[in-house]
Amino acid sequence: MSGLSRERSGTEVRVGVIGLGRPWLERYRPLLVRPGGPARVVVVYDPVVHRAELEADRLPCAAAEGITVLLDRDDVEAVFLLDEPWYGPWPIAAALARGKAVFCGGRPRAALDELAALPTDRLRDAPPVVLELHHRFAPETIRLRELLATTLGPPLRVSARMTAPAVERSSSDDDPAPALPLPADLAIALVDWCRTLFGSDPASSRLLRPGADSSDNLRVLLLDFPEGGSARLSIRLVPPNRPRPLHRLSVRTAKGRAWITPPGTLRWSLNPGGLPSAESFPPDPPTDRLVEHFLRSVRGESTLAPGLEELATLDRTSRLFVP
């Protein structure tokens, strides 16, 4: 197979799409199917054969009879894995074996499990794998990173909190409500969020066990970073009827403080007693940035997306938080 070309900067990337459900229709199709865009869809696959054939006629492109057929095509440089019905995440390993970069939509825990099962030599010099790490690519996070690099200075202490449903709630084509993230996926999101702000992997991590006066629905992880900073991460299980998980983050630096609260609000102030500034950003998932940085990684350009070694560290640390 031809694999990836690292010398195609600025040209379109030829992609195959696996899974044509709601994520494709609502989030990814508008970005990947537009004249003059950075990517060209050359083949699609869906377990519902009629759906794949209809979409292939609309684009137009080819409709693959199976996942392996799609991955074996020489004109596919990268794969968008957007649904995980019966086949699960195994196309990740199959794509990497053929030298294809992979974008993994949906829950990151399944993708990290698949990567962790691969031999180390299979991952050496492997093409990029990008997960849906929304907080890393959110505009408020990118703006906060700019402030930490300039006005506020590097982070000293970070506190990040999320809530998670106590019971898994699945999503299907017959259910209009999207699936709620599981605690393991939120643990990955929290660890990656803090790692992004510090700009390095944690030097050490330890789980705080609930004390005698703590309920079993709270988990707390402490991270220490090489430059002396630290982070306290917490996940609390809540009743499943809460509509969406909540997330909050606060940062303290030598010069000031900053806070991120939903939906997409960043507040920050300088010491001592500086007046707070507030900035608001769209609350929608940063799908455009996710796609942009995946395609940049395929072209061998600089990107905010973590490499495979960073993903391995993220996997180990998040498993300590929520197995």
From TrEMBL:
SUPFAM superfamilies, per the entry: Glyceraldehyde-3-phosphate dehydrogenase-like, C-terminal domain, NAD(P)-binding Rossmann-fold domains
Keywords associated with the record: Oxidoreductase
InterPro entries noted in UniProt: Gfo/Idh/MocA-like_OxRdtase_N, Gfo/Idh/MocA_oxidoreduct, NAD(P)-bd_dom_sf
Domain Gfo/Idh/MocA-like oxidoreductase N-terminal: 13-104
Keyword presence, Oxidoreductase: yes
GO molecular function, one term: nucleotide binding
Pfam assignment, any one: GFO_IDH_MocA
PANTHER family linked to this entry: CONSERVED EXPRESSED OXIDOREDUCTASE (EUROFUNG), CONSERVED EXPRESSED OXIDOREDUCTASE (EUROFUNG)-RELATED
Family: Belongs to the Gfo/Idh/MocA family.
Stated name of the protein: Gfo/Idh/MocA-like oxidoreductase N-terminal domain-containing protein
Biological classification of the source: Bacteria, Pseudomonadati, Planctomycetota, Planctomycetia, Isosphaerales
